[in-house]
Amino acid sequence: EAGVTQSPTHLIKTRGQQATLRCSPISGHTSVYWYQQALGLGLQFLLWYDEGEERNRGNFPPRFSGRQFPNYSSELNVNALELEDSALYLCASSLVPRAADTQYFGPGTRLTVL
Amino acid sequence: AQTVTQSQPEMSVQEAETVTLSCTYDTSESDYYLFWYKQPPSRQMILVIRQEAYKQQNATENRFSVNFQKAAKSFSLKISDSQLGDAAMYFCAYGLEEGSQGNLIFGKGTKLSVKP
What we know:
heterodimer, A: seven-stranded mixed β-sheet, 11 strands, about 0% helix, globular, B: six-stranded mixed β-sheet
């Protein structure tokens, strides 16, 4: 069974541009979570989608947004990129929409903002 | 708000020895889950072990076991017979049983080195 996949692996943008990151969950999983992993800060929760709806978002500005498609894949958009947005962005999926269920992570997208 | 603290940024262990990674958390909830995730240098996070707060028995998975102290809000990970492949970042995480907070809350991680 295929795991969580993310694309692209690496993304280089300049300040002020927009970035789009994509995630495909494990087949059958309806919940998708996005986390930002900046150096030395651990994982910070960004967004949670389930059944096409945004269920919760972390303490990030509105320029971080996303959506979930009918096939449960998800997209994270970051507008007006800033240097501090440089980080590894991890996507995770779970079968059941609650934190008690195990979340399975993708390999991440490394975003570099120059 | 719930928080997770890992007080050891880096740890080192000799191959075949035992090491314990510390994690404390703060919550006013009674029903929750705790996790240890491993992130090897290749970046893919994988689940190591999972503990339900309502269970008094400590979870074990082969060489990995936890010491869960609910009253003290402590959740340490013990790795026995350490292997070179155990070298990774280890993250402690907390998740609520129910509610709108479906996300996990992570500590900042402990980097484990294994010496041959």
